[in-house]
Specification:
By secondary structure, this protein is an alpha/beta fold. About 40% of the residues lie in helices and about 20% in strands. Helix 7 links the parallel strand 8 and strand 9. Helix 1 crosses helix 9.
Length: about 280
């Protein structure tokens, strides 16, 4: 029997998840159906109840429901607890298992697809919102030499740095800084996890932060050369990436979790790539 999965969000038309999961199902020979559910605002739980009652096995969750999914879950994985948000659900009888694969997907894209190990590297992440929260533990697991969270609102960066320290006291030095404290510091990998790119804004990042040979990674997907990537390019950075690989890899993590088989992501990434121009 065909197992049913879906992505729920509002709006949902833009979601690439059905395309990605159906492509994974094809290459792995899995018999699944994957659809889009437009969740009514304020009606997340009822929409998921309906999907489960019809035999649904799992869901991806996108904006604005990641916190509703957190509240709906019966069993939260550490990744979801740390991120404070959920992006994948698995239904088994009366249990609702919840994960957040965004951070692990990001790290897999950087290390595995882009061939950029984080171990021993100086890592800078811009922003202290949900995207950064989700990436903290997966970053620390790679043992960079240093992890700096920089944010417009300094207190939020400091809070996240403290939270990260609590999870691994003293192992990887983690700092929360303001942008004006970055002068004179250089990093091997710089991630833009702010929402600034969605409005074509540029965080006040000094162009001097990019070390020779650095990777500049924009978590947003499909926006071409964002102001952040342009800044990096103008600073001489040649390794530029956006979040297309992260999108594919977080989907692959959910697919493995649901189906027990890991799909190759390269074809999906190639098809979804928007040139960085
Ligand atoms: P998400 O869940 O996508 O991470 P969020 O939780 O709303 O979104 O967080 C957005 C992040 O982008 C915040 O760190 C925000 O900085 P503040 O905490 O100071 O608000 C950051 N951000 C948004 N627009 C920005 C801009 N123009 N320049 C710098 N940082 C920006």
């Amino acid at each position: 029997m065909t197992d049913r999965y879906a992505v729920i969000g509002n709006p949902i038309e833009q979601s690439k998840s059905p395309f990605i999961h159906m492509a994974f199902a094809q290459v792995t020979g899995q018999d699944i159906d994957y659809s889009k559910v437009l969740g009514p605002l304020g009606g997340f739980a009822a929409a998921v109840d309906t999907f489960r009652a019809a035999g649904g096995k799992g869901m991806n969750v996108t904006a604005p429901f990641k916190l509703d999914a957190f509240a709906y879950a019966t069993d939260l994985a550490p990744s979801a607890k740390m991120a404070g948000a959920v992006n994948a659900l698995k239904f088994e009888a009366d249990r609702v298992y919840a994960e957040n694969f965004d951070g692990v997907g990001l790290v897999r894209d950087v290390v595995h697809n882009l061939g950029c190990p984080l171990r021993g590297q100086r890592v800078l992440i811009l922003g202290a919102g949900g995207a950064t929260r989700g990436a903290l533990l997966p970053f620390l697991a790679e043992q960079p030499s240093q992890l700096v969270v920089v944010n417009r609102t300094l207190s939020k960066a400091q809070e996240l740095a403290q939270l990260a320290e609590q999870h691994q006291p003293g192992r990887v030095p983690v700092q929360g800084l303001g942008y004006d404290q970055l002068q004179g510091q250089q990093f091997d990998v710089v991630f833009n996890a702010t929402s600034a790119s969605l409005t074509a804004e540029l965080p006040p990042l000094p162009a001097s932060v990019f070390a020779p040979g650095a990777l500049a990674y924009e978590l947003a997907y499909g926006k071409g050369l964002t102001p952040f990537l342009k800044l990096a390019q103008q600073a001489g950075v040649t390794r530029l990436a956006d979040g297309v690989g992260m999108l594919a890899e977080q989907a692959a993590e959910a697919f493995v979790w649901w189906r027990g088989v890991r799909p190759d992501t390269s074809a999906v990434i190639a098809q979804l790539t928007v040139p960085l121009i």
